[in-house]
User: Which sequence fits this backbone?
């Protein structure tokens, strides 16, 4: 009971409201459009919970993201969205592990529940865009070889996913913008899947909830960045 109260106090009312609304939206859409794929429901709930922890800069979010990547990769494999499967299992999950290590090694003022926000240097940006271009080209031909459905949006999903995980690893507030862009692509991708199977509409709703959380995550990290920079100035 005490741990539950401490968790509630840890989040603001706005964050609790956002999480509750996201969970309700996901569960209701599952009950209406799916009612069968409980693994999809579990992945959605784990994913949206990871985002609210990520918005606080808490490494717990990366632990949940590792779990989400495994489950979502399997779901994508079942629908033959090999791009999504390869992206999450071969890229998002390993990068979430690296991000977890990076976040744990860089706490803000020794506080393990809040990562120290980082600003990208010029070399970081050059490396990011170079690697993004290379990953996009490589994955396009890999996806083509697997006869991936909807190859163009699947390839764009790889691009936005890589940007997001790279920025997460680098502890940049813009990681959330990368994920928000990826959410939009995935909304399109799973909407196309819904044409074939209406049950996948629950996945679309899931990523709509993810989009709202990622937008909040960016705003939260910008505030966190400003607060931390003020703290450093005062310490100096």
Assistant:
């Amino acid at each position: 009971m005490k741990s539950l109260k401490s968790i509630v106090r840890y989040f603001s009312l706005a964050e609790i409201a956002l999480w509750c609304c996201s969970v309700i939206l996901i569960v209701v859409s599952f009950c209406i459009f799916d009612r069968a794929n409980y693994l999809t429901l579990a992945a959605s709930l784990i994913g949206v919970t990871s985002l609210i922890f990520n918005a606080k800069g808490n490494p717990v979010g990366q632990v949940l993201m590792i779990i989400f990547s495994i489950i979502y990769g399997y779901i994508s494999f079942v629908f033959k969205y090999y791009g999504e499967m390869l992206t999450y299992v071969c890229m998002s999950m390993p990068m979430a592990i690296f991000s977890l290590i990076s976040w744990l090694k860089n706490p803000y003022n020794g506080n393990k529940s809040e990562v120290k926000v980082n600003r990208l240097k010029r070399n970081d940006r050059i490396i990011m865009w170079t690697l993004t271009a290379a990953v996009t080209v490589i994955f396009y031909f890999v996806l083509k070889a697997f006869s991936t459905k909807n190859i163009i949006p699947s390839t764009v999903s790889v691009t936005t996913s890589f940007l997001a995980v790279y920025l997460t690893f680098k502890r940049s507030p813009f990681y959330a913008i990368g994920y928000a862009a990826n959410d939009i692509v995935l909304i399109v991708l799973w909407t196309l899947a819904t044409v074939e199977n209406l049950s996948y509409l629950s996945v679309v709703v899931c990523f709509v909830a993810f989009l709202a959380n990622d937008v909040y995550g960016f705003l939260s990290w910008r505030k966190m960045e400003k607060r931390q920079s003020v703290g450093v100035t005062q310490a100096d």
In short: The beta strands are 107-108, 111-115. The longest strand covers residues 111-115.
